[in-house]
Specification:
2 copies of one chain form a homodimer. Helix content of chain A is about 40%, strand content about 20%. With about 290 residues, chain A is of the alpha+beta class. Chain A has a 5-stranded mixed sheet with strand order 4-3-5-10-6, with helices on both faces. In chain A, α1 packs across α2 and α5 packs across α9. At the A-B interface, α1 and α4 of A face α1 and α4 of B. The first copy, chain A, binds a DNA duplex (30 and 30 nucleotides) through α3.
Chain lengths: ~290, ~290
DNA sequence: CTCCCTGATACCCGCGCGGTATCAGGGAGG
DNA sequence: CCTCCCTGATACCGCGCGGGTATCAGGGAG
């Protein structure tokens, strides 16, 4: 049985990301030769070639691609172990709730109120995330629970309880012809040439192909829409970040989005359970 | 940011399991002093006390208990990374299916037939498990897919697709009065003093309290039932291992058991997806 | 043909990990 | 009350390995 050290995994991931030993070494704060040697030893120990180096380019082999994925989840698990242990050991025992900035603002407000009013639930810190960051933070231990969205977010390794489901709205510039509409369809908004949909980064940080502008943050897209350069389809409850220059129009045929409260698939502590319970109870109240 | 090495985690887990530095060191194949030092350094690095040592006994602190849980999942992830990488790199690319020995025998038979008949699906090796072992093997990479049972198995970190649901039967000795019955209730069988239910080990290896005999394997319990010393409630499809000395009686009010095909929550490769698809298709055929 | 880019090799040094020997403190038994 | 022993902590040492610098090697570009 081979066993890998997290140091080796970290080295491997750096090279797999950069596909360049020199740059990877620099990122790791070390020299290139020991890095080359470490990777070589790793390959020897596993008995598997991880990179194809043909003098000018470095590429992942199939096995390397597998390790790339696996190593990242393993490193996340190790980091989570460290962070959760530290948090458990320190007097301050607030749990961390991750949520997309601007999303479900009023629900979150009421949830936090309910939690702080209830003596049973622990203190909660809120950390605001961009796009799909909640899952990352749950996985590496920087957060304990999160508000996430089905089906848009990535739930691998994450459990969740449904809170509420809502339709989506298109956010368009107030001075655009579409702004006068009562309701639109996906077909209509995807065929507007002067208002392409903004492109969000995928999990690996790259962008899908398409005509729309590349954005990373909510305020970037808010700005772009206000400038009349893009439109956006989001859950209705996200409207909290709308500016006067924005108009929200219900989209009749966009898939509904379910807001869920999510936690890492393992480690369901009593504190986390209390918060989940508070959230589901609140959702029941709001539904009735 | 602290980062833990897998070596340290392994040391910690050994001590957490044994609650005894000397024995843990022996299990690890090392001397006790370096182990003590390693744990001490770990505590220093995390800034958290992990064990309460009061000269005569070693106990986990709250933080230690957290790390115990987290470290085991992290180590599983690391081991899985190594194993899956090795498997991906070697010419032989069979995927490994874990199943409880004796359970759902005919379904499995047909599934394997369907898979080997289909050129699209990969080769499949079958590994037979005792009780809840499938989840462990999925988590540490020794298996890629598994047949598991809801609600009895532990699905933390594991995704699954339902295959079929069935009622449970009580297995009793053929010479016992109950053997003549057409149908029994849970109440009836739990109040038979001379036929206690066998006790299976919990996830941590210990046994729940109770009058029944402790068993670890299917053949142990099969033997015990044949000897008239215990009874057992299992899904109807598990009857494959019945001996002539066994009689199966439907239990009217036992919770139904759903057999599912399961895989680790991350890493859903094309090969695994093909096997899952074959299994769900087969279940559809069998249901109609 | 030459230069340069990039990964591999050679070699050295120092830290850290693991080993042995020993200490320290407290519980149990006479 | 004293002693023995059990168990974890401390002290100290040696060496292996991880990381550094210098250099090589091979192939693409101009």
């Amino acid at each position: 049985m081979v066993d890998l050290e997290t140091r080796e995994l970290k080295y491997f991931v750096a090279v797999a990301k950069e596909l360049h030993f020199g740059r990877a070494a620099e990122l790791l704060g070390m020299a290139q030769p020991p890095l080359s040697r470490a990777i070589k030893q790793l390959e020897a120990r596993l008995g598997v070639r991880l990179f194809d180096r043909d003098r000018r380019a470095v590429a992942l082999t199939d096995a390397g691609a597998v390790l790339h994925r696996e190593a990242e989840t393993a490193l996340n698990a190790v980091a989570a172990a460290a962070r959760r242990t530290q948090r458990a050991g320190h007097p301050r025992r607030a749990i961390v709730l991750a949520t997309k900035a601007g999303a479900a603002h009023d629900t979150l407000q009421r949830l936090l109120d309910a939690i702080s009013a209830d003596a049973e639930t622990p203190d909660v810190d809120v950390v605001l995330c961009e796009v799909g960051e909640q899952a990352v933070k749950l996985r590496d231990g920087r957060a304990d629970v999160a508000l996430m969205h089905r089906p848009v977010d990535d739930f691998a390794g994450i459990d969740a309880e449904e809170l509420f489901t809502e339709r989506q709205v298109a956010i368009v510039p107030a001075n655009h012809p579409l702004a006068a509409r009562e309701m639109v369809t996906m077909d209509e908004i995807s065929s507007v040439p002067d208002l392409p949909m903004a492109r969000w980064p995928l999990v690996d940080g790259s962008y899908p192909a398409g005509p729309g502008p590349e954005v990373r943050t909510q305020s970037q897209i808010a700005h772009l829409v206000a400038l009349g350069r893009a439109l956006l389809v989001i859950p209705a409850s996200s409207r909290a970040w709308q500016w006067p220059e924005h108009v929200a129009i219900p989209v009749s045929d966009a898939p509904e989005v379910t807001t869920v409260i999510a936690w890492p698939a393992h480690s369901r502590s009593r504190e986390i359970a209390a918060v989940i319970l508070a959230a589901t109870r609140l959702a029941d109240v709001m539904a009735s």
